[in-house]
Design goal:
mainly beta, 17-stranded antiparallel β-sheet, flat
Length: about 300
């Protein structure tokens, strides 16, 4: 029975703390059955292949897993490149109490991932990766995909982007019955070294149920943009859903001045609206935080 570890994911720079994480890189076995490094027909290429088969049986579950990892890398060249691909298949069956062999849950799935990397000298690195998965089980099924690209350039300049999406369907307890959920995130970041950075993130989600026809009970999205250029920083945040909408913004120039504004609209169970404005200069409120609100209707 093989041991497995997980490769660490990529990440946005420190200026993107709070940004959606880069959901990309990509599970593979750390120890497996390894073939020796093979030259490809005299070319300056190295081929490595790893494979593992796990099988376990317990009083409550039985599992089978197959993992295969293939990678190709260059050697002895001024520009180096590497490419790897991983495929994994799993099949797990859960049982009831130890004195019963009645299967209560079965899960199987397949996942694959790819990563490509190009290096030119010490500071320059380009990367692209993607992954996808499909799962099927007795309570529900799902599928997901993720992509990411990155460029690390001289003078501390980085450009990173990622996106991920998931769709799941199944039977839920209570009144929801058969349901579906959709979730998607994306992130983009540019780091200009000591000069500043720009980050943008977005998220969309929806959940609902269907009995004859689909009825979405929750749909929403969220967009966040932040900037840090020299002494000036700021952020903008917008949120939308079936029951409310909101906007927040703040800009600051070092410790000299700052301005804040926000609006919010609620439509359920009653309609109402709120606005807030504030301005500060050299630590002194020029326009104190003022809140305007309208009485809910209904």
């Amino acid at each position: 029975m093989g041991k497995h570890t997980q490769r660490m994911p990529g990440y946005l720079p420190k200026v993107a703390a709070g940004a959606a994480p880069l959901a990309l890189l990509l599970a593979g076995p750390a120890s497996a059955l390894a073939d020796p490094t093979l030259p490809l027909d005299g070319l300056p290429l190295d081929l490595q292949q790893h494979g593992s088969l796990d099988h376990s049986v317990h009083s409550s579950a039985a599992a089978v897993g197959v993992v295969r990892d293939t990678s190709v890398a260059t050697r002895g060249l001024p520009v180096s490149a590497a490419s790897s691909a991983t495929q994994a298949a799993t099949d797990t069956t859960g049982y009831g109490p130890s004195d019963s062999l009645t299967a209560v849950k079965t899960t199987n799935g397949f996942s694959q991932s790819q990563r490509h990397e190009l290096r030119a000298g010490s500071p320059v690195r380009l990367m692209a990766g993607n992954s996808s998965r499909v799962t099927s089980s007795s309570p529900g099924s799902g599928l997901g995909a993720a992509t990411a690209e990155g460029a690390w350039l001289p003078y501390g300049v980085d450009v990173l982007t990622d996106s991920s999406g998931d769709v799941g369907a199944g039977r839920f307890a209570g009144d929801l019955g058969d349901g579906v959920g959709v979730h998607r995130t994306s992130g983009h970041a540019v780091d200009f070294g000591g000069l500043g950075s720009l980050v943008a993130n977005s998220e969309q989600h929806g959940t609902g149920r269907f009995v004859g026809s689909l009825d979405f009970s929750d749909v929403g999205r969220r967009h966040l943009a932040t900037a840090d250029v020299g002494p000036v920083s700021g952020f903008l945040l917008t949120t939308q859903s079936l029951s409310s909408n909101g906007f927040r913004g703040e800009f600051a120039a070092a410790d000299a001045a700052s301005a804040r504004v926000s609006t919010g609209t609620s439509v359920s169970p009653r309609v109402g609206q709120t606005q807030s404005v504030g301005v500060t200069a050299f630590g002194t409120p020029v326009v104190p935080d003022v809140v305007f609100s309208t009485a809910p209707l209904g």
